[in-house]
Specification:
Blueprint lengths: L5 H23 L9 H26 L4 H26 L5 H25 L4 H12 L5 H23 L10
Length: 177
Amino acid sequence: MGSILDRPSGMAMMLSGAVFIATGAPYVTNPPAWSLPFSVERVMLLAGYALLAVGLLGLHRLQVGRDGMLGRIGAWLEVVGLMAALVAVTASLAGLDLEWLHGSGIVLAVVGMLLAGIATIRAGVLPGWSGGALVAAALLTFFPVEYSIVLLGLAVLPLGHALWKRAGQSRPVASSV
């Protein structure tokens, strides 16, 4: 049986997708239809990163024992990368420029999402497309930033839903073979 934290982690991932879409939506049109004030945009990024970290931890927790070393390494890289990005974005609200830390954190998170996506496909706990969505979310970061944040949101929304839906069911036990 899953933990009582599994469903909230799926909800957190869905909310992160919605926040990322809302953050990037004004910039997708050319010229931008409107823009968010810097501090509002930064607070939205903080919320999106924090919610995504909770969702990704829930995903790893749901698959523990089935996602293997690849999943564990991916989960660590995701969380460390997102925490670095959180620190950098928080510092930017205080007027400090830590964009190098933000960029480094995003690179770690992207590599982690790629590894975790492959591990999710291999674990078979969620539908195969769920791991594919995580791999796609990682690869979509290569688009220009104004598009990649929206595409990331579109990729993690259904993954969060699958996690939320699956969390209410019993979890398969890892095979020792």
